[in-house]
Write a structure and sequence with these properties.
Layout: E1 2-8, E2 11-16, E3 27-36, H1 39-47, E4 49-50, E5 53-54, E6 59-60, E7 64-72, E8 84-87, E9 90-91, H2 97-100, E10 111-112, E11 126-130, E12 134-136, H3 143-162, E13 170-173, H4 177-188, E14 194-197, H5 201-209, E15 214-216, H6 221-228, E16 233-238, H7 243-252, E17 253-261, H8 274-279, E18 283-286, H9 294-302, E19 312-317, H10 321-329, E20 337-341
Parallel strand pairs: 13-14, 13-16, 14-15, 16-17, 17-18, 19-20
Antiparallel strand pairs: 1-2, 1-6, 3-7, 3-11, 3-20, 4-5, 7-8, 8-12, 9-10
Helix pairs in contact: 3-4, 3-9
Bound molecules: zinc ion (2 copies).
């Protein structure tokens, strides 16, 4: 089969890989239909690593995808061949202490697609997954929306963990796909004021057009907070991976507010203003992808409670991956989410 592999820093080539072998118990053979390029893929593309997860070349990236079931292994009743599925890219062992505690996303033997040292990704024609990672999508759901359930599930999880409730005021710092998904979920659950920042005009516009009460550059945020939520924000969702955003978040939360850290910083350390954070007893919550939120993300889209399709601004073929990654890495041409169609 064909696969788009990272062959060196900043270089992706189309290579041949053997087709997956016979299916084991509980496994499903998926024909990949569409893959979304994630910010984390871009970290690996540019630098070959995130923290101590280092790429050894060649390596196939990609973890956000929708597929059609080609074949199912022994013991699988659902999904069935021919079903279109959204996929949770986290293959957990279902045996360790974390899995037994229901924390599948921090499984001790986690194999996450496209994560160096764990499993190769889905930028290829066929992938084998356990059936429990495959979620049949409603008939007629756009394939792009099926792909976007993965980033949306992270927003669902982050908002749960942050304890955002109806009526609460929230800021999302960073209006990339994850930030925009957070905005959508916050709106869907009936949050109060929703403020969004980004550095790019096109993303500020997208946030303004899709539910934000205020969207603008970070410099304007504290003024917007004093106008719209003078007591301070209940929740800040950091989806930029920037020190400046963390600093700003701590300054705009009300005492007892929650900062959820979702973004992946390029640096290995982030500092917090500990005196403001402790005096205001800010709760800092780290978000590790998501756990058990894929079906809820599908339902939010299927029930029309959120809108995510607008994020898919660009579509490429598998042989155009180099171009697609360069576009996303360079924030070019108003890109929000680039898709690869197979
Ligand atoms: Zn991702
Ligand atoms: Zn486990």
């Amino acid at each position: 089969m064909k696969a788009a592999a990272l062959v060196g820093p900043g270089r992706i080539e189309l290579i041949e890989r053997p087709n997956p072998g016979p299916l084991g118990n509980g496994q499903v053979l998926l024909e990949v239909k569409m893959v979304g390029i994630c910010g984390s893929d871009i970290h690996y593309f540019e630098t070959g690593r995130i923290g101590d997860a280092k790429v050894s070349y060649p390596f196939v990236l990609g973890h956000e995808f929708a597929a059609v079931v080609k074949e199912v292994g022994p013991g699988v009743d659902r999904p069935r061949p021919g079903d279109t599925v959204a996929v949770d890219p986290a293959i957990s062992c279902r045996e360790c202490d974390q899995c037994n505690a229901g924390r599948f996303h921090t499984c001790r033997r986690l194999r996450f697609l496209g994560c160096p040292g764990q499993a190769e990704g889905c930028l290829c024609q066929y992938v084998v997954m356990p059936s429990h990672c495959c979620f049949v999508v409603p008939d007629g759901l756009d394939i792009r929306d099926a792909v976007l359930t993965e980033p949306l599930s992270i927003a669902v999880y982050a908002i749960d963990r942050a304890g955002l409730k109806p009526g609460m005021d929230v800021a999302t710092l960073g209006a990339g796909p994850i930030g925009l998904c957070c905005l959508q979920v916050a709106r869907a659950i009936g949050a109060g004021r929703c403020l969004v920042t980004d550095l790019l005009d096109c993303r500020i516009e997208a946030a303004g057009a899709h539910g934000a009460d205020w969207a603008g550059r970070p410099e304007g945020l504290s003024q917007a907070v004093s106008r719209l939520a003078p007591a301070g924000l209940d929740v800040v969702l950091e989806a930029a991976g920037q020190q400046a955003a963390i600093d700003q978040a701590i300054g705009i939360l009300r005492p007892g507010g929650v900062l959820a850290v979702i973004g992946i910083p390029r640096t290995d350390r982030i500092y917090i203003n500990i005196h403001t954070a402790r005096r205001n007893e800010v709760d800092i919550v780290n978000i590790r992808r998501q756990n058990n939120c894929t079906q809820r993300a599908i339902d939010l889209i299927g029930d029309g409670k959120v809108e995510v399709g607008f994020m898919a601004t660009h579509t490429f073929t598998l042989s155009q991956c180099q171009q697609a990654f360069e576009l996303v890495a360079g924030y070019k041409d108003g890109v929000i989410k680039a898709m690869v169609r197979l």
